[in-house]
Amino acid sequence: MEPTVRFRVLTDHEVKKLTLNSGIPSTVDELVAAIKEQFAITTEISLQYKDEEFDNFFTLTTTKELKDKDTLKVVYVPLNITLTFSHNTELALSQGNEIYLRDGTLLTSPSVKADILERLAEAMFCYTAYPNDAQRSAVAQALIETHPCLKEPGSFNGIYGWQQSLKYKCGNYRTKRKAMGSPELLINSMKYKMGDDRKPAKYIKKPKRAEVNYLPQHLSGETDSSLENVRLGLVEASKKRDVKSINDMMARTYSWRRMEVVVQSPDVAKFKERWPALFEPFQINEEFRRCAAVPLESVFMSQLDKYTPKLLDLFSVKGGAVGQRIKNLLMELIQDPSTSVVKKRDVTLRCLIEYMGESGQELISDYYGKTESSVHEDLKMRNMQIYVCREPDAVGVIIEGIPVLTDLGNLARACCLLLGMTYALNLQYPPQLCKTFEVFQRLFVGLDTLHPKPSYRFMTLKNKTSELVGQMPASHS
Predict the structure, then answer these.
(1) Per-residue pLDDT tens digits for 345-368
(2) What pTM does this model have?
(3) Domains of the chain: residue spans and CATH
(4) Which long-range contacts (CB under 8 A, 24 or more apart) does 370-373 make?
């Protein structure tokens, strides 16, 4: 009988323990399957192991390298879609590229162009129903780089005509998909709008912060009724703390939950009553991954740590009244240079809010010597707030006067998960903190969309941090 083995498993923001009573699996695929089952991971993953000699992680290619109490790291595999056209089109493109490379002759076939536009519109719809100019330009650029025979004759960049054709083709494709019942498109049709909003271009509900699964269709075989029954079962599973069932049902009901938050825009109190399982850190991370295809907490913290030295350099030279407020916040780090990573994150985020021309008091409420319940009572009229209590220690998030997350441990985690909540609940950023949340989204999570256009303050911050990167001395390994 194989001896029991235990592994320390790093998954995004959490450290978990995996016990395998049957010993180390003979293949990596078997180990991956065991980890996915144990931790209810539904997406594709690969594994890395920590090598003691190098003190670093390496891709796991065989389980023979593993032993009891080793550390494994879960790496989520990104989607990789390869676009192919019809057989006739592929043949025409192959021949067209050969001719172009030989004598520069471009391929101008209406039937080939029609097939290409149809396939491109279909592929783009898988990512977003409403591609913007930058996205269409990127697709057109990739097309002519792959098939140079498709360059547009007479165009200043060879792709302008393709961009315009894609614009109209995507519009036609949306019409077709709406007729097939796509929820992301039906929600913007006239019959779903009320009163004065019943205008084609008014209050269009569509992804605005790089959501890739903004309003997906139900899984095959599911209906509104069947998913409502699953939701009721999810409420019961939440009461019993049945983690595996909760994870499975949360993944299964994502489309139903998105329909509710996007179409109905319910009050937070009502939504929390209907979906209690959502309101805890692990599920917020999972919901963010479903919505934006990014592991929220691990990316946010790693990017915050990456930019902290550069940001602190910027903050330290800021002048005026804002600079004075920032210097007061920086005193904690000046007085204790060896302070913890958690404390550096806290100070960096507080300084960031001031640096972006906003007020830390609009986001963070500090308390000393007050119970968490009294803090909740004190903040019941606040729309969106993070509270940080000392003696007793407590950190949590308030939205619409309702405590939605508690026991978060520190300010950085609260900021990160509050960003996740705005995606999970489809909430707009608070107007008085929109620049700060823009940094959270674009810089710390990497969802740096070109539409809507980045603010001037954000671009200034991004450019200055980039300049500092170039000035930093290269490290030698």
Answers:
(1) 999 999 999 999 999 999 999 999
(2) 0.67
(3) 5-76 (3.10.20.90), 87-180 (no CATH), 194-278 (no CATH), 299-471 (no CATH)
(4) 372/396, 372/406
